[in-house]
Write a structure and sequence with these properties.
By secondary structure, the chain is an alpha+beta fold. The protein contains 15 helices and 18 strands. The protein has helices at about 10, 35-50, 50-55, 65-80, 145-160, 205-220, 240-245, 250-255, 265-270, 280-285, 300-315, 320-330, 385-395, 400-410, 465-475, and strands at about 85-90, 95-105, 110-120, 125-130, 170-175, 175-185, 185-190, 195, 200, 260, 290, 355, 365, 380, 420-425, 430-440, 440-450, 455-460. A hairpin with a 4-residue loop joins strand 17 and strand 18. Helix 2 (about 35-50) packs across helix 3 and helix 5 packs antiparallel against helix 15 (about 465-475). The chain is globular and about 55 Å long.
């Protein structure tokens, strides 16, 4: 899933989106098939025209700012060249969800979207999620050799690069074997430094995977209890005691804590230089309360994951950043990954660029918008090679046990999210990983356990990763399993 969740601050560092808003509180709708088709057309028409956006807004109840919704659809139009509707169906077992399949014009690739509808008799969109293409939209495909699949994926990457709709690095692997690894665009437009496969890109919310794995390691070691409430680990300098007594560690990991507002939103209004160490966020965390009863609903939360980082520090007796470096990154061989401070003179780091059509150069650097340093919820830096090493270490038992990994990847409530990982199923089988979105940051990693492949796309321009990952995923439908000789 691209945890797109229309939520501005959330997508700042997050699955997938640009604003921090929970799904609207409307009773689940029971749309007809005709209504499902109508909402699918509304979505596609919003991608293709400004008039379509206005029509979509008339049927939207997500509570997100209209400016953010307009920006999302306009960016989708620019990055993918527009879209064509392939089909729509009501989801099996959840008739309030409309599964949409569309085809982007630039890559010619299928893309999945889920629209959750609420209210009757005139339903509205209460939640939107970018997902793998649904299996019903995938027709039979002839099996291709691994070499043929790699060549076709390389051509897709070249298409995005030539159209200047992609700037970043890409890696596609079958197990340990890297099939495609390439880069294009500029890490610095100011100094004309090209991107390379060794370039470190801002990960956005992909750091949430590292934080979840760190917490699970401590759970395995008996040093952290997932069912324990936060007052066991955090004192009143972090969180109001009456709030801490109601929220569990596991609820932080699964975004069901009910904590609000989003701490990224709070920090945006503060001088960046204040926030170098995790403890520097304590004054902001003290302003956090409960917007819903803990454990009752999924609400993507940077606040919850930041506090999970503080819990990890308390349970381990180590600085959060040191713990992740020594117990997650180092065992996985990820020597080029970490939460780099903006004023650290580190080489091979890409600058992020936000599209600004009215600006003299058409782009603006995100340097004045970025946080001083990444947090447990996102903002660290890595390379495509290091993220592939993370995927291999994770599945190879180097970081957590198989039983713990299955728990991290479980999605019993159908939220398209487990514990620190986006969790989906589509035409290519199961897909797990995470995405990141911020101004000038667009990232996505998908691990396909059924097929044995890993896709990592790290981009330093807005929204460039999801459509390319979707296109690559389409080619994997014809790929032989990684276990084949």
């Amino acid at each position: 899933m691209g945890r797109w969740m229309m939520a501005a601050t959330l997508a700042l560092l997050a699955s997938q989106v640009a604003w921090a808003q929970a799904p609207a509180e409307l009773p689940p709708a029971r749309p007809t098939n005709a209504q499902a088709q109508a909402f699918a057309r509304l979505y596609v028409e919003a991608i293709n025209s400004d008039e379509g956006i206005e029509a979509f807004l008339e049927h939207d109840a997500e509570g997100a700012p209209e400016r953010a919704i307009r920006g999302f659809f306009q960016d989708q139009r620019w990055i993918g060249g527009g879209a064509e509707l392939v089909g729509a169906r009501l989801a099996l077992g959840n008739p309030a969800v409309v599964q949409v399949a569309l085809r982007t014009k630039l890559y010619g690739a299928l893309q999945g979207v889920e629209l959750t509808l609420g209210g009757t008799p005139d339903p509205k969109v209460t939640y939107l999620d970018l997902t793998p293409v649904p299996d019903w939209a995938v027709g039979p495909s002839s099996r291709r050799s691994r070499e043929e699949v790699a060549a076709r994926i390389a051509k897709l990457v070249e298409t995005g690069c030539r159209a200047e709709r992609f700037s970043g690095a890409v890696l596609v692997a079958a197990g340990e074997e890297v099939l495609v690894q390439s880069a294009c665009g500029e890490a610095s437009r100011r100094y004309h430094v090209p991107n390379a496969v060794s370039t470190r890109f801002n990960l956005g919310s992909m750091d949430k995977m590292f934080t979840a794995v760190a917490a699970m390691q401590l759970i395995e070691a008996g040093r952290l209890r997932p069912e324990a409430t936060l007052d066991r680990y955090l004192d009143a300098t972090w969180l109001e005691p009456d709030v801490a007594r109601q929220v569990t560690v596991w609820q932080l990991m699964t975004h069901t804590s009910g904590l609000s507002p989003d701490i990224v939103s709070l920090a945006e209004d503060q001088p960046r230089a204040r926030y170098r160490e995790l403890g520097d966020y304590k004054p902001l965390a003290r302003r956090v309360g409960l917007s819903s009863s803990p454990g009752t609903r999924f609400e993507y939360s940077n606040t919850g994951v930041l506090l999970l980082g503080a819990v990890i520090a308390a349970a381990s007796g180590e600085d959060y950043y040191d713990y992740v470096r020594d117990h997650v990154l180092a065992p996985a061989g990820m020597s080029l990954t970490g939460s780099i401070a903006a004023d650290d003179p580190v080489e091979d780091v890409a600058v992020g660029y936000m599209r600004a059509p009215a600006a003299p150069y058409g782009w603006r650097e995100n340097t004045v918008r970025n946080f001083l340093r990444g947090i447990p919820a996102g903002g660290g830096y890595s390379t495509v090679g290091d993220m592939h090493r993370f995927a291999m270490a994770l599945q190879g038992g180097k970081l957590v046990s198989q039983a713990s990994l299955e728990r991290l990847w479980a999605d019993p409530q159908g939220y398209n999210y487990g514990a620190g990982f986006e969790v989906n199923r589509g035409g290519v089988g199961s897909a797990v990983g995470h995405s990141g979105l911020y101004g000038g940051v667009s990232t996505r990693m998908r691990i396909y356990p059924d097929l044995g492949y890993t896709v990592v796309v790290l981009a330093n321009i807005d929204r460039a990763a999801p459509p390319l990952v979707d296109a690559i995923e389409g080619e994997l439908l014809a790929a032989p399993p990684a276990s084949d000789p």
